[in-house]
Amino acid sequence: MKNIISLFVLSATLVLVSFNNVGLKDYKINKIVIDAGHGGRDPGTHGKISKEKDIALKIALETGETIKKYLPDVEVIYTRDKDTFPSLAERAELANKNGADLFISIHCNWLSRPEIHGTETYVMGIHKTEANFEVAKRENSVILYEENAKETYDGFDPNSPESYILFSLYQNAYMSNSLMLAQNVENQFKNRVGRRSRGVKSAGFWVLYKTSMPSILIETGYLSNEKEERDLNDKLQQTYIAHGIFRAFRDYKQDLESL
C-alpha cells in the first residue's frame, strides 16, 4: 500500500511538472542524458561476434559527440562512457538529479528466430505482445547483477509477470513527448538510415519508469540476425545510426521550442 501511495504522489508530481514546462514558449531543451545499455559485468545480449554492451556504448558515444558538434548549446551527459556497470537505479537517478530534459537509452535486441531483424523504439507503458514483454524482461534483468536488488527495487522481479502490474498504475506525464521522439527515431531509421523499422512500441522498462522526463529506449537491431550483427559492428553503420538518432533529437527539439 505504501508503494502504491508513493506511486500516485509521483504521478501527480510529474503531471504538475509537465504543465509547468512542456509547451511553454520559453521552453528549451538544453540537457540530454544518453544511456549506453548494460556494461561491465553485464554484457547484455550477444551474437556470434559481439556483445550488446560494446555496440551500445559506441553508438551512444557517437550520438553524444554528434549532438555536441551540431548543437553546442545542449549539454550531453552519459550514464557511462566506458565499460562500467551503473545500476538501473543509478542511471535514472543521474538523469533526475541533473534535471535532464530528455533521456535516451541505447540497446541491441535478440530473438530466438534469426530471420527477425530491424529497429524498435520503446516508450514506457504496458506490453501489448509477448514479444514486447520478453524485451522488457531481458533489459530489466540487469538488476540481477546488482547487490541488494530486492531492497533497491522494492522486490521487483524482472521475470515475474505479477511484478509488472505496478506499471499499469503509472500515468506517464511525458508520454506524448516520448512518443513524438520515438516516432522521429523510427522515421529516421526507415527513411534516412535505410534500416528496417519495426515501429514504436511500449513495455515496462524500469529505467524509463523512474526517469522524470520524456524518455525512450532504442533497440538498434538484432544480434541474433547475422547480417544485422555485422552491420551493428561496422563503424560506418554505427555512425549512420547515431546520426539518425541525432536528427530525430534535433527535429524534436526544434518542434517543441517553436511552440
CATH topology: Aminopeptidase
What is the architecture at the second tier of CATH?
Answer: 3-Layer(aba) Sandwich
Continuous helix count:
9
Tally of structural domains: 1
Low-confidence stretches: 1-24
Secondary structure blueprint with pairings:
Blueprint: H1 2-21, E1 31-36, H2 52-70, E2 75-78, H3 88-97, E3 102-109, E4 119-124, H4 130-140, H5 149-152, H6 175-193, E5 197-203, H7 206-209, E6 215-222, H8 226-232, H9 235-257
Parallel strand pairs: 1-2, 1-3, 3-6, 4-5
Antiparallel strand pairs: 4-6
Helix pairs in contact: 2-9, 6-9
Salient structural properties:
Aminopeptidase, alpha/beta, 259 residues, six-stranded mixed beta sheet
What does this structure look like?
β1 (31-36), α2 (52-70) and β2 (75-78) form a beta-alpha-beta unit. The longest helix is centred in the C-terminal third of the chain and has 23 residues, at 235-257. This protein has a single domain, classed as Zn-dependent exopeptidases (Aminopeptidase), CATH 3.40.630.40. The radius of gyration is 17 Å and the shape is globular. Strands 2-1-3-6-4-5 form a six-stranded mixed β-sheet, sandwiched between helices. By secondary structure, it is of the alpha/beta class. The termini are far apart. The chain contains nine helices and six strands, in the order αβαβαββαααβαβαα. α2 (52-70) packs across α9 (235-257) and α6 (175-193) packs across α9. Helices cover 45% and strands 15% of the residues. It has helices at residues 2-21, 52-70, 88-97, 130-140, 149-152, 175-193, 206-209, 226-232, 235-257; strands spanning 31-36, 75-78, 102-109, 119-124, 197-203, 215-222.
